[in-house]
Amino acid sequence: MAIEQPSDDVRRVRREVRDERRQRLYRRAILITVIGNVLLATVKGAVAWVSGSSAVLSDAANSFSDTFYSLFMALGLSMARQPPDRGHPQGHSRFEPLVSFLIAGVMGLAAYAAVREAVLRFRAGGAAIPPGWPVVALVGSAMVKIVMYRLVLEAGREAESPALRASARDNLADVLASLAALVGVGASNLVHPLADPLAGFVVVLWMLRAIWDILSENLGYLTGRGAPPEVTAEIVEAASGVPGVVGVHQVIADHVGPELRVDMHVDVDGGIPLREAHAIGEQVEDRVESLPGVGVAFVHVEPDDG
């Protein structure tokens, strides 16, 4: 028996309105991140080559990994913001955490290269690093990263983007990594030459922590992690505030990529016309989808016989 294919009159792709303001925020944050990381990686790499500082080299490796992170983030966000189509009827938001895993892999390679160099220099006994250009590079890096942190965090909050907020947190961690490298350069002269490779190890630890944060956060986005209880409570409160809603008796909210998909059941007066009940359901959808982090809401309207 042949299976009938859905009619062309049946909508098979979720309707989505392109948010141009959010697109501008993404482009601005990506531009800031890419240009800033390329500049810092180039300058710190040159200073590490000239000075021989293991700490600066580790920090340069971190910046090179951030450059790849920025490029992958640009690619991932571009793919994730594509509208739903027949191949991806719920949208492309899962591409964002998938690319984040690739980013974590690139950062892991940079961390390996940095720790290998630190081990070699530690075994060689370290060296006192002249405090000239290394100090300038590290202080300048910290200042640039503070500016990048504030700008990208602002864009991430306005766009309600977990990826941009994570990128901002990575910039803040890089500030601390540059400061650790700065301490290593100074201590190699004032305390012991081994302080420089030891500071390189500290920088690697910051890189590993950032990798762990990326993996743990995005694993939940890929595997459909549920919404926190406080977010579920906000969803119930938003739905309950719609005129005509008598009660909310089911809310299932899970992640489809970084955004939440909400499936919920609301009760309305069983005696009202179907058209009026449908309008109430649409109001609930609009109100729930306006909440931060919610991508789409499916509302099932049921009669209240109590």
Beta-strand percent range: 5-15%
CA-to-CA gap between the ends? 45 Å
Order of helices and strands: HHHHHHHEEHE
* Mean model confidence by pLDDT: 79
What percentage of residues falls in helices of 4 or more residues? 55-70%
Q: How many runs of DSSP E, i.e. beta strands?
A: 3
* CATH architecture descriptor of the largest domain: Up-down Bundle
The spatial strand order of the largest sheet comes to 1-2-3
Biggest sheet architecture: 3 strands, mixed
Radius of gyration: 25 Å
Taken from the alpha-carbon principal axes, the silhouette is elongated
Number of domains: 2
- CATH topology call of the largest domain: Alpha-lytic protease prodomain-like
Short description:
This protein has 306 residues and is mostly helical. It has helices at residues 20-51, 54-80, 95-123, 133-159, 162-190, 195-222, 229-240, 274-289; strands at residues 245-256, 259-269, 294-304.
Notes on the protein architecture:
The protein has about 300 residues and is mostly helical. The chain folds into 2 domains: about 20-220, Alpha-lytic protease prodomain-like; about 230-305, Cation efflux protein, cytoplasmic domain (Alpha-Beta Plaits), CATH 3.30.70. Helix content is about 65%, strand content about 10%. The chain contains 8 helices and 3 strands. It has helices spanning about 20-50, 55-80, 95-125, 135-160, 160-190, 195-220, 230-240, 275-290, and strands at about 245-255, 260-270, 295-305. A 3-stranded mixed β-sheet has the order 1-2-3. Helix 2 (about 55-80) runs antiparallel to helix 3. The longest helix is centred in the first third of the chain and has 32 residues, at about 20-50.
